[in-house]
Amino acid sequence: MRSKLFVPASRPELFAKAIAGEADALSFDLEDAVDESRKEEARRELAKFLRALPENSGKTIIVRVNALGTRHFEADLEAIVGPGLDIVNLPKPDSPDDVRECAHALAKLERTRGLSPVSIMPNIETPKALRLAAEIAGANPRVVGLQAGWGDLIEPLDIERYNPAAIQALQLQIRIAAGEAGVWAFDGAWADIKDTEGLRAEALAARRLGYIGKSAIHPSQVAILNQAFRPTDEEIAHSLKVVEAARAAAEQGVGAYTVNGRMVDAPFVKRAESILALARRLGLLAQGEGRIE
User: Fold this and answer.
1) Which domains does the chain carry?
2) At residue 293, does pLDDT exceed 60?
3) Which residues, other chains included, contact 217 with Cβ-Cβ below 8 Å and sequence gap of 6+?
4) In this structure, are residues 99 and 65 in contact, taking their beta carbons and an 8 Å threshold?
5) CA pair distance 160, 164, nearest whole angstrom
6) Fewest CB atoms less than 10 Å from the CB: which of 59, 64, 75, 167?
């Protein structure tokens, strides 16, 4: 899920175009992108679209619902839970209890409708959520990842959004919290659509910190994100050497060794395997290539 394109749920004329686009995932937004007066209409249009999706649309389908405690949260779930939905994006959770409440509400609907469990991706967009990020990530088995919400998290604190040093410090904190729970981290959106170099730089920084992808607010950002979160040819070549060296070392009973002058042991092998697995998923390697049997 290198790229995730936000699509306002109040703009049904954009739905089919988004499905036909290059984003790995679509995040239909019932929250901030929808005016209060159009919430009900947006839910209705989105529910109709989700039910009509083919079984394999080729996209990960995410819906950002309205926050717990709003009058729209339960109505949002009632409308969207069903075939076609992969992940509920939960905005503004402040505690693990918020995640568990969302999971409970999903389970109740799924039992009634005979559905498989839907995953949850909580946003980290309040100071308290940042402090409790690892607990939020581990609150329920449905949680697949944490998403950074930069505007809500830092703008009210008078922290400049486009300050790379501040963003990277927060990115690392969220990534470590996600790692503690064994889930992935997903980077927040870059709102300056015209600043493509800034977008690329922030995406590459996120990837170096272990993020799997980044949100896009405009289709023009998607290609940049897909490229930024693609393993480079150099990374793939090095990773192939690492797994081959690991295979040889295992045969010789050696625990640490060097590849291209760098010391390598189990953690480095694990990262190389992760890079090669992504390369195979993207069709950059044959399915059996670079595997350690």
Assistant:
1) 3-228 (3.20.20.60), 233-281 (no CATH)
2) no
3) 5, 6, 189, 190, 191, 193
4) no
5) 9
6) 75
Give the largest Cα separation in the chain, rounded: 69
Q: Are 42 and 75 in contact (CB under 8 A)?
A: no
Tokens of 24: 């790995």
For residue 48, the 8-state DSSP code is H
Taking alpha carbons only, the member of 141, 239, 130 closest to residue 182 is 141
Q: Are 20 and 79 in contact (CB under 8 A)?
A: no
pLDDT, residue 260, reads: 83
**Tokens 């699509």 belong to which residue?**
7
213: phi then psi, degrees, rounded to nearest 5: 180, -175
Judge whether 122 and 93 are in contact, CB under 8 Å.
Answer: yes
CA distance 199 to 229: 12
282 confidence band (pLDDT: 50, 70, 90): confident
Model confidence pLDDT, tens digit, residues 193-234: 999 999 999 999 999 999 999 999 999 999 999 999 998 888
> For residues 121 and 90, what is the distance between their CA atoms, to the nearest angstrom?
6
Predicted TM-score (pTM) of the model is 0.89
